[in-house]
Amino acid sequence: MQARLAMAADGLAALIAALAARGFEVVGPRRRDGVVDLGPLASADDLPAGVGSEQAPGRYRLARRGDGAVFAHGPTAQGWRRFLQPPRERLLRASRRGRGLRIAADRPRPARLAFLGVRPCDLAALRALDGALGGEPADPRYAARRAGLFLVAASCVEPGGTCFCASLGTGPRADGGFDLALTEILEGERRFLLEVGSEAGAALARELGLSAAPAADQGAAGRALERCARAQSRALDPGATAALLARSLESPAWEAVARRCLSCGACTLVCPTCFCTTTADDLSLDGGAAERWCGWDSCFALGHSYVHGGPVRATLAARHRQWATHKLAWQQEQHGAPGCTGCGRCITWCPACIDITETAAALRRAEATGARPATGGGP
Q1: Which of 49, 103, 162, 344 is the least buried, fewest Cβ under 10 Å from its Cβ?
Q2: Residue 180, phi-psi category: left (phi > 0), alpha (psi -120 to 50), beta (remainder)
Q3: Cα–Cα distance for residue pair 347/59, rounded to 1 Å
Q4: Domain-located, residue 49
């Protein structure tokens, strides 16, 4: 489909209003608590106009921009996963009724959601979640929220300081999986190139009365995307890295990175493709009622791999290896989509400044020198 249309800067207001009129709750980037996060948008005024970000290992700061750009803030502090798989939700309630027991399952009643400003790396993350949670068998709660989702992507014209999507092929241009896609043009008067990706998107574009984009706009958008790709200083070769990891399960580089890791799980909490959960039961003091809750979990937690007798991954080196190899190799094999999309959030929000691209480089150096683990490895 991919029709290319021109949209003025103030067209975002009409776009949000049109989505709301269709019954969608519009969710997008907004400035809040010193970061750009994601939340409900009442109008275009809620968008972070003129806000950029400075991102580096273990560092995030907002920065003021003089061009009024709305989508040049780098990756948001959180991904879109929380709207499709909430951090904590109740699964069922149980209560005593005389000598019997009454159990009632909670059914998700999701609102119709429209995501506005989804970066290409996060589109790739949604594909990864679809593979893990929307396949066979599907997570019914995820599937219920995912159904009917309207996606307005925003191609990246300004990368974050820790981004490496260009090397993975997940950005900076949104190349599919959306209803509409915007590219913000900052040459001259600020405006947008809008691309149509679905019939639902085409119907909305017709309602907005947009005309075909002139060649000048298409050229300006292309140049912005090229500059964004060139500005990224980090890179990973996905195929070569997956093969390297398969050869490096006993590398001493895992012990080296484990000495820095705090096992806090921050990387898994901000990662847009992590999907691990755990369940817990809350019991009333009198034993008459109970609730079962599902919540996010992290493979960095010692109890995440617990089975009868103890955890499978008892060392921090083993847990870090599990996380990195699943992101960069195994998730592609298991669910058909890579677990790393190059958003760089794990690097930005790691308090120990651990960089997954540096970990891959350390594994390559260890392999090149023939280094061997001092203890012979471990679980």
Answers
A1: 103
A2: beta
A3: 9
A4: yes
Query: CA–CA separation, 236 vs 24, rounded Å?
Result: 37
- What are 186's two structure tokens? 């900052």
Q: What is the pLDDT of residue 305?
A: 92
Buried b (16+ CB within 10 A) or exposed e, 174-209: bbebbbbbbbbbbeeebbbbbbbbeeebbebbeeee
Residues 6+ apart with CB under 8 A from 325: 245, 249
pLDDT tens by residue, 161-213: 999 999 999 999 999 999 999 999 999 999 999 999 999 999 999 999 999 99
What pLDDT, on a 0 to 100 scale, did the predictor assign at position 335? Answer: 85
Contact 36, 1 (CB under 8 A): no
Q: Based on the structure, what is the number of domains in the chain?
A: 1
Could you give the C-alpha distances from 178 to 13, 120, 134, 202, 310, in angstroms and in order?
A: 19, 10, 17, 11, 44
Between 107-111, 127-131, 265-269, 362-366, the lowest mean confidence (pLDDT) is in 107-111
Do the domain assignments include residue 50? yes
Contact 311, 109 (CB under 8 A): no
Expressed as residue numbers, the domain containing 47 is 4-89+105-230
Q: State both tokens at 133.
A: 């949670």
pLDDT at 378 over 60: no
Residue type, 359: T
Query: 310 pairs with which residues across the strands?
Result: 307
Classify residue 319: in a domain, yes or no: no
pLDDT surpassing 80 at residue 227: yes
> Would you say residue 208 lies in a domain?
yes
pLDDT, tens digit, 9 for 90 and up, residues 251-293: 999 999 999 999 999 999 999 999 999 999 999 998 899 999 9
